[in-house]
């Protein structure tokens, strides 16, 4: 497991219990509120430090996904000295009308940065949009991968996932804490 102390800290801070409607429409009895670690300067830095070795050397640009992927991408971009763009769910309909803010993506190897992956739907949508803009997108780095072990959607879309924590990592951290 990646850094059990950090897993325990993230789990203790972010795992909420209740009834939650997820982005995908699924209903879950647990929710990882990423903003509770992203707002903590020490925790977000520690997560980004764990993510840095997962970043391939041929990445041109980090692409932080609105909203929760953006702060992680910004911190990782600082640590790795990597140019970073901020990928909206939908391009603005005024101003520059951009989907990806912060620099060009055409012809670039864009590595996505996401907070939580449940079905991969948000990542696939962002990857498709960036590909339409001419980017090469084949990898997402995420803080928490809570997909079921048999999920294939991202692989089917040609996207590899490298996560700091899987759901199993956080479950193990929780079990150790009990
Ligand atoms: O893998 P999926 O099934 O797509 O679910 C995970 C997505 O859902 C959340 O997005 P949401 O739009 O709720 O969050 P945010 O704007 O607060 O980041 C989360 O940040 C991921 O982007
Ligand atoms: O699937 C989601 O929408 C989701 C799950 C989760 O645990 N945390 C989150 O921010 N979003």
UniProtKB/TrEMBL annotation:
Catalyzes the transfer of a ribosyl phosphate group from 5-phosphoribose 1-diphosphate to orotate, leading to the formation of orotidine monophosphate (OMP). HAMAP family: PyrE. One of its GO terms (molecular function) is orotate phosphoribosyltransferase activity. It catalyses: orotidine 5'-phosphate + diphosphate = orotate + 5-phospho-alpha-D-ribose 1-diphosphate. Its cofactor is Mg(2+). CDD domains: PRTases_typeI (cd06223). This is Orotate phosphoribosyltransferase. The gene is pyrE. It comes from Flexivirga alba. The keyword S-adenosyl-L-methionine does not apply. It is an enzyme of class 2 (transferase). Keywords: Glycosyltransferase, Magnesium, Pyrimidine biosynthesis, Transferase. Its EC number is 2.4.2.10. Pathway: Pyrimidine metabolism; UMP biosynthesis via de novo pathway; UMP from orotate: step 1/2. Signal peptide: none annotated. Belongs to the purine/pyrimidine phosphoribosyltransferase family. PyrE subfamily. Homodimer. The keyword tRNA processing does not apply. Gene3D superfamilies: 3.40.50.2020. Orotate binds at residues 118, 146. 5-phospho-alpha-D-ribose 1-diphosphate binds at residues 23, 88-89, 92, 114-122. Residues 44-141 form the Phosphoribosyltransferase domain.
């Amino acid at each position: 497991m990646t850094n059990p102390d950090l897993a325990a800290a993230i789990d203790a801070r972010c795992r909420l219990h209740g009834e939650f409607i997820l982005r995908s429409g699924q209903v879950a009895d647990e929710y990882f509120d990423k903003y509770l670690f992203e707002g903590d300067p020490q925790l977000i830095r520690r997560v980004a430090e764990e993510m840095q070795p997962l970043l391939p050397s041929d990445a041109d640009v980090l692409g932080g996904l609105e909203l929760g992927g953006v702060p992680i991408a910004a911190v990782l971009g600082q640590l790795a000295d990597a140019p970073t763009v901020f990928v909206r769910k939908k391009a603005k309909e005024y101003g520059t009308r951009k989907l990806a803010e912060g620099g060009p993506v055409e012809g670039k190897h864009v590595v996505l940065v996401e907070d939580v992956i449940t079905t991969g739907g948000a990542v696939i949508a962002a990857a498709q949009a960036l590909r339409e803009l001419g980017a090469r997108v084949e990898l997402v780095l995420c803080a928490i991968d809570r997909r079921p072990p048999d999920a294939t959607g991202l692989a089917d879309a040609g996207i590899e996932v490298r996560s700091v924590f899987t759901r199993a990592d956080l479950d193990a951290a929780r079990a150790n804490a009990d």
